[in-house]
Amino acid sequence: MSLSSFVPVVPLDKPFIEVDLSREYSPDRISLDPPSLGGYNEKRKNMYVSALYADQRDVHVGLDFWMPVQTPVFIGSDAKLIHLQNNNRDGDYGPVMVFQHPLPDVQELLAGYLTRWMGTVAAYSGKTTSRKALADFLKENAKSLEPYFDRDELASFLEVLGEGLAIYVTSPETLFQELKPVLPDTLYSLYGHLSEASLTGKKPGMMFRKGEQVAEMGAESENGGWIPHLHLQLSMLRPSSGDLPGVVHERTRALALALFPDPGFFLPECTFV
Questions:
Q1: Which among 109, 102, 118 has a CA at the least distance from the CA of 160?
Q2: SS3 content of the chain, % helix, strand, coil (to 5)
Q3: CATH ID of 1-273, from 3.40.50.300, 3.40.50.10330, 2.70.70.10, 3.90.1280.10
Q4: Strand partners, 83
Q5: DSSP per residue over 148-197, as a string?
Q6: pLDDT digits over 58-68, tens only?
Q7: Among 3, 58, 128, 147, which one is most buried in terms of CB atoms within 10 A?
Q8: Which helix (H) or strand (E) holds 248?
Q9: pLDDT tens-place string over residues 194-252
């Protein structure tokens, strides 16, 4: 499978401004026209200040497309809608849709992604070669993620990741082939900060074709209180509801980078101003 299996999830008719919020968060730095793009694996200090983030989560694990209200949102590849709900707490997602993508040869793409990121994950874990130490490290960091997934599926993924880390620090040249057959065969996506109207007439089980409009961006009054944008997040595991942690704590960062792949690795690139 090639990256051409994916299409843009938002209109790309205007160049984007790439906004680095790791330096500072200021709403004045975010433009809607021309649109702005907010990054993945970005530690955003002073941005998440509502009670929802009392645990001091601030590492962003999706992509943000800041664009005007009612900007159309498209599905990146053929997908089935599995969850939809309105997370209407202050600072939350507002309306959300979660999709399942039955992609051909997705294990090859995920193995390529994890091979690329394993060095980063290994660095966070201290590059120990002890399988027990790696397992303990991953288990401890997975605690805050347990409410979002089936526990058995999460435990299995931790085992795969632990083995992958051990292989990486001993014989990294074999990592891709070792990972490929044991990774999930489906990819999941969460679309957040949508309009309430986007949920009307939709229900779990509906199928959508690649490039089909599935939603529109919501206003600040309905999207959790944010400047209008789409938060796009991918997951290797099936979410148990219409919710995922869009930002994680620093201590969970290593695991989150593996569990929530960078959407920019899969999607066509934006052009920038």
A1: 118
A2: 35, 20, 45
A3: 2.70.70.10
A4: 98
A5: GB-HHHHHHHHHHHHHHHHHHHH-GGGHHHHHGGGS-S-EEEEEESB-GG
A6: 999 999 999 99
A7: 58
A8: strand 247-248
A9: 999 999 999 999 999 999 999 999 999 999 999 999 999 999 999 999 999 999 999 88
